[in-house]
Structure formats: C-alpha cells, structure tokens
Amino acid sequence: MPQSVSLSVFRFGSAAARVWAFAQMGLARPAMARTPDIGFWKLCGSGTGEGFTPVPNTGVYAILATWPDAATARARVTDAPVWRRYRARATEDWTVFLTPTQSRGEWSGQAPFTPTTPDHDGPLAALTRATVKPRIAARFWKRVPDISAMIGTDPNVAFKIGIGEVPLLHQVTFSIWPSEQAMAGFARTGPHAAAIRAVREEGWFNEELYARFTVHSDMGSWNGGSPLKTLETA
C-alpha cells in the first residue's frame, strides 16, 4: 500500500491555550514517538499573514506525520492521544491526507516521503522544506513578503500555510493547487522565480527538500469549512 502523509493544523484562541500549544513543541515529543505505526513526524509552529513570514503566529500550530497507509493515518489522527489533546484545546482543526508522488532532498538528514503513486491531472499539494544558512537569513526573509503577497492573491490556491520547527532558520511551505498548470504558473513567475534563482546561485540552504502529493481526503474544518471544497468547482 502507498505511504500516507497527514498534515494537521490547529487554531488556538485563548492565551492559556496558546501557551499550552507552544509548550507542546517540546513536551509532546515523547508521546509522538510512542504513537503506534507513526514514521517520520514533526511538530511545527506557523507564521503570520499568509503564513510565509518570519513573525510567529502564536495561534496556529501543525503536526506532520507519515503512516504506512491511508486507513492507519486516519485512525491514528482520530484516536492517538497527542491529536486528541490538541483537538480538545483548539477552536478549530483540519487534517489533510496525502499520497507522495515526488520527493527529493532530505529533512533532518532523512528522506521522509516514499513516492509510490504517479502524478495525475487532478489536484496536488506541494511542500518545500529548507534549513536557511544563518548568514543568509536576513536576505532570505527580505524576499519572502513579496512571495507571500503573491500567493495570497492567487485565486488558484485552495490552501496555503508556512510552518517551521525553528523560527527564521527551519522553514516549510505547504500549498494545495487544482492542477499542475496552476502551480507551475505561480512558481515560474515573479518574486518566487527570482527567489528560486537566488537559492541556486547563492546557496542559501544547508538542507532542502521538495515533495509533491496527490490529495487523498480530509477531516475537520478550517475557516469554517473544508479547503478542498474549492477544488470541486475549479
């Protein structure tokens, strides 16, 4: 069976809930490691605005994990203690289940995703992860607001978020698109294309990973509904 990947996002409202969620970045790690069937996993914070900013969003956190198959992924996200504790304190939560189709590079020295399904013409998700070289960080973040504004106004994006393990230095971007053509149109133009050229020419990252996925299913809600609903009419 193909590997399944879950990305769960949680919104926390009260100050107490936000403090709790921040503390879980460290405290939840032992319980995550004990979760049955879990493979690679990461606990992440997020950025403000469209998510792709260096300013932390204290109200939104994320859990990314890999699983042996889709049924196991849904069962564990539903019942595992860590996810249940997060949902109990969150005002809203949403999980999208994904199947890897492409992956190159490493994350924390590992290749976490196992592509087994060929690309198709339908909706897809893209994930990029990078460890930014400290001496480059200021230059990197100077470019990000233009990219954030561009993706924020793109009508094709069904969902987008910027998350990370360490503010400023460990960054993940995740977005869902109706088609390969829509995603490529964004990636090859404007500030995003200029930033990609700079990454290659100037060597901004110590470690990077790029992956694509088919969108399998989801559960929960975000901003009052499922972000995947927009894909049904795209």
Plain-language structure description:
The protein has one domain: 2-Layer Sandwich (Alpha-Beta Plaits), CATH 3.30.70. Mean pLDDT is 83; it is low at 190-194. The chain is 34% helix and 35% strand. The chain has helices at residues 15-27, 29-34, 70-79, 81-89, 137-152, 180-187, 190-202, 229-232, and strands spanning 4-11, 41-47, 56-67, 92-105, 124-132, 159-166, 170-177, 205-220. An eight-stranded antiparallel barrel has the order 1-3-2-6-7-5-8-4, surrounded by four helices. The chain is globular and about 45 Å long. It has 234 residues and is of the alpha+beta class. α5 runs antiparallel to α7 (190-202).
Question: Features of this protein?
Answer:
234 residues, alpha+beta, 35% strand, eight-stranded antiparallel beta barrel
Outline of the structure:
This protein has 234 residues and is of the alpha+beta class. The chain has a single domain, classed as Alpha-Beta Plaits, CATH 3.30.70. It contains eight helices and eight strands.
Itemize the secondary structure elements and their pairings.
Elements: E1 4-11, H1 15-27, H2 29-34, E2 41-47, E3 56-67, H3 70-79, H4 81-89, E4 92-105, E5 124-132, H5 137-152, E6 159-166, E7 170-177, H6 180-187, H7 190-202, E8 205-220, H8 229-232
Antiparallel strand pairs: 1-3, 1-4, 2-3, 2-6, 4-8, 5-7, 5-8, 6-7
